[in-house]
Amino acid sequence: MWEPTKCCCCCDVRSGSIVIGVFILVSGFFVLLAGAQILAGGKSDGPISCWNWYEDVSECENKFWKVGKTSSITSIVVACCYIKISSFLLYGIHKKKTAFFIPMMVAHVIKITFMILGSVVLIILMIYEGVPSAAIFPITVGIGLAIFLKTYCLLVIRAYYYQVSALHMCILLKNKY
């Protein structure tokens, strides 16, 4: 399997792993704050447009609020998990402990899997609903780029994981002989 030796052709994989960890940590805090802000507001704070096929506007608002509340709670839980595993990654990079890299790598694999499955379902639904291919193509390209970026981040973290593992192995062999 291909392993990057540098991140973005300019810095080593250690620096790239740190940038990835910090970016995920900071974005996790922003998602956490956004979810908390939505939950702190009320039904009337969100932009809701109810169509004519709803007879009762309050029923429409309740449905949209339930969806918004559920997605906000889910976002907060996921953000807390990402904050925790990115903290593990940064600690592992700082202390050169490979066990702390594993949660982030597993999370990346899970997210890539969900992104691929979700994009396949989305594309199938769009084709089924008769969305023109001129609209499907840019969405597919965007999803593909997001999956590529997530996979590249995984490979950068994995490459540094193997560098640290090899360093530990050399130290163990040196101490043994």
The main sheet comes to: 2 strands, antiparallel
The value of Rg in angstroms is 21 Å
- Proportion of β residues? under 5%
Helix content: over 70%
Structural class: mainly alpha
| Number of separate helices | 4
Q: Spell out the helices and strands N to C.
A: EEHHHH
Low-confidence stretches: none
In total, how many domains does the architecture comprise? 1
Distance from first to last alpha carbon: 32 Å
Please give the number of β-strands.
2
Mean pLDDT: 86
Q: Describe the global form.
A: globular
Strand order of the largest sheet: 1-2
Pfam family, one: DUF7027
Organism: Scylla paramamosain (Mud crab)
InterPro entries: DUF7027 (IPR054291)
Domain DUF7027: 71-125
Overall description:
The chain has 177 residues and is mainly α. It has one domain (6-176). The protein has helices at 13-40, 57-95, 102-128, 133-176, and strands spanning 6-7, 11-12. Strands 1-2 form a two-stranded antiparallel ribbon. Strand 1 (6-7) and strand 2 form a beta hairpin. Helix 2 (57-95) runs antiparallel to helix 3 and helix 3 runs antiparallel to helix 4 (133-176). The longest helix is centred in the C-terminal third of the chain and has 44 residues, at 133-176. It is globular, with a radius of gyration of 21 Å. Pfam families: DUF7027. Keywords: Membrane, Transmembrane, Transmembrane helix. InterPro entries: DUF7027.
